[in-house]
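2.7 Reproducibility. Because tokenized structures are sensitive to small changes in the input, we list the exact sequence used for DUF983 domain-containing protein, including any N-terminal residues retained from the expression construct. No trimming or masking was applied before prediction.
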Amino acid sequence: MSKVINALNCKCPNCKKGKIFIKGGHLLLFKIPKMHNRCPECHYKFERETGFFFGAMFVSYALAAAQMIASLVIFWYFIDLSPLNVYLIICGIAFLLSTFNFKLSRTIWIYMFHSDKH
Ligand SMILES: [Zn+2]
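Resulting structure tokens (single pass, no recycling of outputs):
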């Protein structure tokens, strides 16, 4: 469980202290969050090889799809909005969560390939 909390806080999987990202990025300026190459605390290398984060796109896709389905169920079935409103809300949510998804997907990807034995 602590692993999940560390991942949500974008902390290094190795020492659980260092931050993975330098800055959060800026949604309205379309700034992508910047990453540290290595953990500032324990020097664990986040990008294991060139193109390592290519796979994080699939994690990001899964996160976005799950969020869209969740919003569809909430706004369509429970709040009973019109299809156009539901569509606009889903687009808004996908946009608002894009930076969050970017960070979380990379963090999840790093955690997936990290093992505690070194
Ligand atoms: Zn570390």
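Residues 2-112 form one domain.
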